[in-house]
Structure formats: structure tokens, C-alpha cells
Amino acid sequence: MSFKNKLGAAQDCIGVQIDNALSAFPESQIRNAMRYCLEGGKRVRGFMVIESAAVFGLRGSGPDRAGAAVECLHAYSLAHDDLPCMDDDDFRRGKPSLHKAFNETVAVLTGDALQCTAFWLLAGEETSADPQIRSELVFTLATASGADGMVLGQCRDLEVQAAHAELTEDEVMSLHAKKTGALLSWSVQAGAILAGEDPTPMRVYGDAIGLAYQIVDDLLDADQPGSEDASILHALGVEGARAAAANKIDEACDALGPYGDKAAILRELAQFVVERQL
Amino acid sequence: MSFKNKLGAAQDCIGVQIDNALSAFPESQIRNAMRYCLEGGKRVRGFMVIESAAVFGLRGSGPDRAGAAVECLHAYSLAHDDLPCMDDDDFRRGKPSLHKAFNETVAVLTGDALQCTAFWLLAGEETSADPQIRSELVFTLATASGADGMVLGQCRDLEVQAAHAELTEDEVMSLHAKKTGALLSWSVQAGAILAGEDPTPMRVYGDAIGLAYQIVDDLLDADQPGSEDASILHALGVEGARAAAANKIDEACDALGPYGDKAAILRELAQFVVERQL
Question: Which residues of chain B from 3 to 62 reach within 8 Å of chain A, CB to CB?
């Protein structure tokens, strides 16, 4: 199956698990808003969960649910990021952002409900028969998304923007490692955790992919008029940033060595990240 | 030890676990804001966790951490409730609310980080040596706080207020069972879950306490000028509400029958709820 077909299949599996999760909650405005907020994502993080589990021969509802969980977590962060007091974005995923389609109150509460749905999915028995694995998924996702992970990175980024501070290359990389990298890296580690295997090689791969993703994001932003402050470019310059992204992709692929051909799709994923086909 | 002394001791134990959790995160604005937001609470929910575990002879860092977890969850809900787009409250726990002391952006992100800290605490190995228990704590707290629990109740309450709708007694009770009851009820069930015991009697007790708590809240609000719409009183009248609260306390205490004298403190807690000493 081609890479694009595999991504499409993963999107379908994640969609099924999202529908299952939502149907466990009563019909309500909050459930409608959760569904709206989850629609239309590319499911890159969920795909990473599913394909990293497949490296260990694990497929099915466990990885699909964990993939849906990280998509709920990601969707909550987008809903809150778009709020007027945050980035104040009116559009998301090609349609009005959540607070525009509903209102700010609903957007805050929907983000809150999506966050706990992520942990609800991971802790549910259908995710793994082994409760140690479920606990570890919850603990590691909570670590990746909280005050030493994504939220820390978001908060630091806003502080830097408010202060118009110039960061060194190391500071920029460290900020983005938290802001976007932690969740991407968790997504590939989740496959190893689900399989009861050591997640270390996946962590090295995921950390490198996360930084490459952010560098490419900044390079693309630099071509857009009215783009946000592209701070990696400030630190590295365009050529330096391109070289850094290529380096990170090499580093990511090297980390997959122990898995041999089983990790072919993750190597393709690394290329797609840098070529920005995703 | 008197009830007040037991509450004070629980507050201290929860404070230790909150400090431990915060010290696991790097020094940052978000950590300072989390600390600010957690300060000054009465820790009723955490106390419920600790005392319900004590009914089964279980004391120590497990119940203390689970108590700290529900306090993180509760603190996040207050921080988001106080936002300008929600209840727009300038004060909380006797000091400026989080968005007043910091700003709205930090208040949104701090709430987000506090929510995942709750699940991080529950899933951590120090909470219980048994991963099945840790998973169950996460799953049940996520259920109690999300789109079929607290957030559902918050969202419905705001819809009712916006529509100036008049609810029946059943509708009011059902709304509050979600909005405030689910988290209070989880708090006493958590003790049974930690001990590996059937949480059913604790659920009956907790559900009843949760409703009594809300009814007393509305009765007290009715004495305050400029109070919010006290919807239980609309449905029941003052005398009806007083009788309903007393009924719920009886129901709560009856549910504790199987535990005999071991549940003496929980019976006292029921009285304190209705006499509003807490």
C-alpha cells in the first residue's frame, strides 16, 4: 500500500474511534462542538501512533484508540490556541474556528472536554488488555502535554513574542521541542509503549521529526505575507534552517536502524514531513 | 482527632503532594501560575478522597496524591470558569482570580496544564502499585469531568442561563449532578477504587452529598444581593430546598451503612456540607 493510502486508512480508523468515543457521551451542544473541532484534521499524530505500533506488528483498535486520543489532545490545543486571548484565529482546518462557529465559552469548555477525552480513551480497557500499558500511555501523554511539555512551550512562546526577545538557536530549538515536538514524539513512542517495547529509538526519531516539522513550518511561513514571527529563521537564516531540517531527517532515519525494513513507512513519513506533503 | 483537625491534616498532606508535583516541572511562568491557582482552596474534594480511602484502612501517599489530583482538576475548572468569556469573576479564594493576577492567556494555559497534571498524578506509580487501579482512577475521573460529567453540566448551565429557561426540579437536579456532583462523587469513590473495593455505596453517598452541597449553595446565594440565578430555589422554593437538602443528607448517611463506625467522619462531613461549615 502506498504512503498516501496508508495515511488514508489510518484517517478512517481514527475517525471510527472518534465516532465511538463521541457516541459514548450524551447528545449535547458540547458534543456537537467536539465533533466540529475534530473534523478535517490530517491526523498526522494519530497516523504516527498507528504506524509506530505496526513496526512491532501491532494493529487494530488499541493503536487506533491511542491515535484518536492524541488527535483529541491536539484538537483541544488548537481550539484554545485560536481563542481571541491567544492567537485570535478566525479560521482553522478550512472553516471558521471553534469560537467563531460557536462562541468563546463553548470553545473553552470544548477544549477542556477534548483534553480529558484523550485520557479517557487511553485509560479505557479497549486500548490495551494490560493496565500497565494504559497507565504508561496516560502518564507519558500527560508529561508531553503539560507544564514540562506542550503547554510550557506555548507559554514560553507567548512570553518571547510579548517581550520581542531574540533567542539563540538552542533556545529556539528547546522552545519548539516542547511546543510541537513533545506531542509528535509521544505519538511514535506510543507505538512502542503499546507493544510493551523500549520506546527509546522512537523517542530519538520523534524528537528529530518534531524539530524538522517546526523548521519546515517556519520556512513555509517565511514565504507568506503577514506571517507570524518565524523565530527559527531569525536564529539560523533560510539556508541554515534548510540544512538543519535535512540534518534532523537524517538523524530521525538513523534512529530507526534497529527496526530495519519494518520502519520503511516511518522513513517515508520523515521525507513527507520535510517535503511538506502532509 | 476532631473533624476540623482531620481536615487540616488532609490539607497539609495534599499541599505536600501539590508541591512535589510542581517541583517536577521546570521553573516557569506557567508553574508560578499553577501554584497561585492552587493556593487557598479548602480541599474538600481531596479530603473526601483521603477519608474515603481511610474507611478501607488505606492512608498515605496514594490517597494523598489522588486527593491532590482532584484538587488540580477542580482548580482548573475554577480558573476557566472565572475567565471573562465565562463567569467573568475578578476574585477567587480571597484574592484576584488567575486572569486578573496574570492575564487571560496564562489563565487558559494554566487551566490546561492543571487538568493534565491531575491525570499525571493518578497515572504515576506512587499513586498505587497496581496499574489496574491507576487506570481505573484515570478513566473514572475523565468520565466525571468531561462531556458526560462536569463540562457537560457547565455547558448546559450556560445554555439555560442564556435562554432564561425555567427548568423542572428533575432537570435542575440532573444539571447539578453533572456540574458539581460528578467530581464530588468521584472523590469518595476514589477511596474505594484505591483500596480495590466496590465503589457503589460511595457513589450513592457521593451523589447525594453533591446535590445537598449544591442546594445549600443556592440557599446561601439567595441571601446575597446580586446573586446568580439560583435555579434550585426557582424549582423548589426555600422550604422545599431545605427539605430536599436534609433528605439528601439522610440518603447519603444511609448509604454508608455497610461501613459502620469506620465511616463516622464521612457522616460528619455530610452534616458539615449542609451546615456549610466547609
Answer: 22, 24-26, 28-31, 34
Which pTM value belongs to this model? 0.96
Residues 104-133 of B with CB under 8 A from A: 104-106, 108-109, 111-113, 115-117, 119-120, 122-124, 130-132
pLDDT digits (tens, 9 = 90+) for A223-249: 665 444 546 777 788 888 889 899 999
**Spatial CA neighbour of A275 closest among A202, A219, A207, A208:** A219
Residues of A in contact with B77 (CB under 8 A): 112
The 10s digit of each residue's pLDDT in B97-119 is 999 999 999 999 999 999 999 99
**In what helix (H) or strand (E) does residue B117 lie, and over which residues does it extend?**
helix B104-123
**ipTM rounded to 2 decimals:** 0.95
CB contact under 8 A, A29 and B139: no
Q: For Cα atoms A31, A37, A40, give the angle at the middle one, nearest 5 degrees.
A: 125
CB within 8 Å of B4: residues ≥ 6 apart: none
CB contact (8 A) between residue A158 and residue B85: no
